[in-house]
Design a protein that fits this description.
Length: about 375
C-alpha cells in the first residue's frame, strides 16, 4: 500500500511525531503498520516499526476502511481518552450553565486544555450538539423560567443574561417558538394544528406548531390524547380536522411502521438544556438496538445522572421521533414507557424484525454501537 505522504516517510513531520511518541498529535492522525495490520496513535509506546512499513491516515475510520484494525494499546487508550473527554465536556457544560453570558468557544477550549477545533468536535461527539447550541438551549430554558405572568418581558430578558433587548428579540422566535409576550401568556393566540388517527399500536395523535411537530402521542382513547394535548398547550388554539394534517398522520404512521425510513419532518423540541442533550443522544440509537439509561448518561457526559436521564425519557412528548422506547435497564429488561410498556415491547419487536431483515440482505454491514435488542 502506498503512503499518502508527498515525500519519503523519514522526512514527513508525522514520522517525527511517531519517533518522539508525541501524544500532542494523537487526535491529528494515526499510523498503520503494513506488516502487522494494526494502527496506532503517534503517542503509543509500542515498538517503532520500520518507516517503509508505515502508512499514515487522518483518523481511525480511514485506516479501518483500508483493512487495518486497532492495536490493543489503541483500544485501551481510547477508553481512557473517552473517560477523560466525558469529564472535560461535563465541566464545560457546567461552565456554560453557570455563566451569565455565553462563553466564547476559545475560552471553553482553553479551560479544557484543547484546541478550539478539537474541543468543538469532542463536545459535539459527546453531547450530540455544538457548544453554541447547548448554550442557546440553556438560555432558552432560562428565559422560559423567567417569563412569568407577573414579570415584565424586559426584566426577564436581563435576568436570563441578555445584554440588550434587541439581542434577545433577534433570537426569541427560534428560542421560544412564539413571541415572548405570547409565551408569557402561556401560548395564548398561537395555533397548534393536530390530527388523530389509528396505527398498529392503537390511537395516535400528531400535533404541529409553526416550527414543526411538537407532539406525537399514543394511546387507547383518541379523546384522552386530545385532552393531554390541551394540558400541554393550555393557552394555545388547537385546530383539528384539517385534511392536510390527516396526511401528516399518514406520514408519521408510515415512519412508525418502518422506522428505517426518514421522518423528514422538522421537530419543535421544547425542553431544558439537559433534556435536549438526552433526547439528542436517543436519536443516535440505531434502529433494532437498545441502550441503557447508564449508556445515555455516559454519552452525554453525565455518568452519574442515570435517574435524570430516565426522567428526561419520561417527559419526552415526541414518541418514535425521539426514540425513548429504545432505552432499557442495564440488564436489558424493559422499564416504564410514557405510552405503556406493552407498546414499548411492540415497537422494539417491530424494529428488530425490520432491522434483521435488512441485515440479512447486507452480509457485510457494519456492527452497531449499541447492544442488539
Amino acid at each position: 500500500m502506498k503512503s499518502d505522504s508527498p515525500y519519503p516517510i523519514e522526512k514527513d513531520p508525522r514520522w517525527k511525531a511517531v519517533i518522539e511518541r508525541n501524544g500532542d498529535f494523537d487526535d491529528e492522525f494515526v499510523y498503520a503498520v503494513k506488516t502487522t495490520g494494526v494502527y496506532c496513535r503517534p503517542g503509543s509506546p509500542s515498538r517503532l516499526p520500520k518507516p517503509e512499513n508505515v502508512v499514515f491516515f487522518d483518523n481511525a475510520p480511514a485506516a479501518e476502511a483500508q483493512g487495518f484494525r486497532p492495536s490493543k494499546r489503541y483500544l485501551q487508550d481510547q477508553a481512557a481518552i473517552t473517560r477523560k473527554h466525558t469529564e472535560l465536556i461535563a465541566r464545560a457544560c457546567q461552565q456554560i450553565e453557570k455563566s451569565e453570558t455565553e462563553p466564547a468557544l476559545h475560552d471553553l477550549a482553553r479551560d479544557a486544555g484543547l484546541s478550539a477545533y478539537h474541543f468543538h468536535r469532542v463536545f459535539k461527539s459527546i453531547t450530540g450538539i455544538t457548544p453554541k447550541k447547548y448554550a442557546q438551549a440553556h438560555r432558552a430554558q432560562k428565559i422560559r423560567n423567567e417569563l412569568k405572568p407577573d414579570t415584565s418581558v424586559t426584566d426577564a430578558i436581563y435576568e436570563a443574561g441578555f445584554s440588550s433587548s434587541s439581542r434577545f428579540y433577534e433570537f426569541s422566535g427560534k428560542m421560544l417558538g412564539m413571541k415572548a409576550s405570547e409565551f408569557k401568556k402561556g401560548g395564548a393566540d398561537t395555533d397548534i394544528f393536530f390530527a388523530v388517527g389509528e396505527c398498529y399500536l392503537g390511537a395516535i395523535l400528531v400535533a404541529q406548531s409553526h416550527k414543526g411537530i411538537c407532539a406525537i402521542s399514543l394511546g387507547d382513547d383518541p379523546d384522552q390524547l386530545v385532552r393531554e394535548l390541551q394540558d400541554q398547550f393550555p393557552r394555545s388554539k388547537l385546530v383539528g380536522n384539517d385534511r392536510e394534517y390527516e396526511k401528516l398522520i399518514a406520514h408519521v404512521v408510515g415512519f412508525l411502521e418502518n422506522p428505517e425510513t426518514d421522518l423528514k419532518m422538522p421537530l419543535d423540541i421544547q425542553g431544558t438544556a439537559f433534556q435536549k442533550r438526552v433526547w439528542s443522544a436517543l436519536q443516535t440509537i440505531p434502529v433494532g438496538t437498545t441502550a441503557s439509561y447508564a449508556d445515555i448518561a455516559e454519552k452525554i457526559g453525565s455518568p452519574k445522572a442515570v435517574r435524570a436521564v430516565a426522567r428526561a425519557c419520561a417527559t419526552n412528548s415526541l414518541a418514535i421521533a425521539i426514540p425513548c422506547h429504545r432505552v432499557v435497564r442495564s440488564d436489558g429488561s424493559l422499564s416504564g414507557y410514557r405510552w405503556g410498556v406493552e407498546r414499548k415491547r411492540e415497537l422494539l419487536a417491530n424494529e428488530s424484525r425490520i432491522h434483521n431483515k435488512i441485515k440479512s440482505q447486507e452480509p457485510d454491514s457494519e456492527p452497531t454501537t449499541f447492544s442488539s435488542n
